[in-house]
Every structure is written in C-alpha cells, then in structure tokens.
Design goal:
14% strand; 7-stranded parallel β-sheet; alpha/beta; two-stranded parallel ribbon; single chain
Length: 259
C-alpha cells in the first residue's frame, strides 16, 4: 500500500495533528487523517499526495468512530495499521470554584474518553499490522497550574492510562508512546484567549471579584508563552521518529517547558 504502511491520526485540522499528518504523508505512509469538517478535509487533501485519505472522525461520537474504523479496515485489509496517533484535544480554563461541570465533562470526553474509544476501535488493526500507538500529551500532564486544572487533570489521566496500556500490550510487543510537548505555537494559542474570554462572561459577579483579574493575567501569560514556543512541525518530527525508529522511547519531551 505504501512505503511504511497505514496510520490513523485524530485531530488533524490544525496544529500538531495537521503537521504530523502531512509529514507522514511526505515520508510515504498512507495517512488516514481524522477531521470533522469538509473544509478541513479539502484543505489537507490539497497539500497532500493522492494516497492521503481524510476520514470524518469525531472522537466523542461512537457512530463516527465505528464508521471510520470500517473505512480504514476496508482499505488496509489484512495489512492492518502501522500506527495510531491520538492527537485530538480541547482546552477549557477557569477557576475550579466556578467552572461549569459541563465544560469539565467535555474536557474529559475529548481528551480522555475519546482517546480510549479510538484505541478500542482500532487496536485489532494495530495487532494485525504490528503497529504502534502514540498518544499526544502535554507538559500539563506532569504539573497542575491555576485556572488550567481541567486540561492538567485530563492530560494527567491520559498519562496514567498510557502507562497501563503499554504494560497490558507488552505481550504483543506493541509500543505505546507518549509525546509530551512543552510550549507550542499553534492555532490552540488563540483558543486559550478565546476560552478565557468566554469563561469570564460565565463567571457570576463574585467570581469576577474573586478571580477575574488574576485569571485574565494568567491566561495572557499562557498565550505569550505559547506564542514563543516551537512550531508544530518540530513536534511532528518527534512523532514521526516515535513511529519509525526500531526501538522508540516510552516518552518524548519536546520543546521549551517539556521537562
């Protein structure tokens, strides 16, 4: 089918996911790139080779995952998958005292339960292809910072699940790798600012009084730190390495703040 086999990657519309999908395509992988919008599918296809395949995949929708799995399985046949890259993610921020529970649940639905749902759907194809699983984490998985606790908690949970999954899949010699970027300058940087403004509007008067100025300042600091971070392509190159070296590390820390 291709030089290196087939890979599935979630969250390829922008940032790290997009850079990784295009890098793997250039290298010779048959890339199944998970997107949720037709415009993103067309945009990616315009930059990629003829073998590049956008796949409509919402990690919070079981029917969407099942359809994507059927599409990929039909295409790869008995060759299975060389890799599965879980990159889809969202970010919610705010003071924990007032953050809406639906926001917290959404954070985990995408960043944790969505990843596990995709792994469960594609693990049989990984076994067939003797492939690898790469989960894209964050420096937030190692530390907790004020006002970004939803993200930190979800990434910490995914680190624990990744460690356990690696041990469970050891009998089949399936590598499970965690990529932990530090500060990265992507479209997500703008989303930090958008989310903080949206959260400020949700706060009751006492929430604004207690936390408003500090939360605003912390959000601005986060935006500035990411704006000075590495480009998404540098993270993509490490993900490519994790998929192609003979013996991948269990964890790769990438860019400033990664350690």
């Amino acid at each position: 089918m291709s030089k290196y086999g087939a890979v599935v990657i979630t969250g390829t519309s922008t940032g790290i996911g997009r850079a990784t999908a295009l890098a793997l395509d250039r290298l010779g992988f048959h890339v199944f790139a998970g997107v949720r919008k037709e415009t993103d599918a067309k945009s990616l296809a315009n930059e990629a080779s003829s073998s590049f395949t956008p796949v409509f995949l919402d990690v919070t929708d079981t029917d969407s995952i099942a359809k994507a799995r059927e599409q990929v399985a039909a295409a790869v046949g008995g060759d299975g998958l060389a890799g599965l890259i879980n990159n889809a993610g969202v970010l919610f921020s705010g003071p924990l005292e007032f953050i809406p529970l639906e926001d917290l649940r959404r954070q985990f639905e995408v960043n944790v339960f969505g990843d596990i749902a995709v792994i469960q759907a594609f693990i049989a194809l990984i076994r067939e292809g003797k492939g690898r699983i790469v989960n894209v984490g964050s420096l937030a998985g190692r530390i907790s910072v004020p006002f970004f606790s939803p993200l930190c908690a979800s990434k910490s949970a995914m680190e624990s699940l990744t460690e356990a999954l690696r041990l469970e899949l050891h009998p089949w010699r399936i590598p499970v790798v965690l990529i932990a970027p530090g500060f990265v300058d992507t479209a997500a940087t703008a989303k930090v600012e958008e989310n903080s403004k949206a959260m400020l509007k949700k706060l009751p008067p006492e929430g604004v009084e207690f936390y408003g100025e500090t939360f605003r300042r912390r959000s601005e600091e986060g935006v500035q730190a990411n704006a000075k971070g590495i480009p998404a392509e540098e993270v993509a190159s490490v993900i490519v390495k994790a998929l192609t070296v003979a013996k991948p590390e269990t964890r790769y820390e990438v860019g400033p703040g990664g350690r």
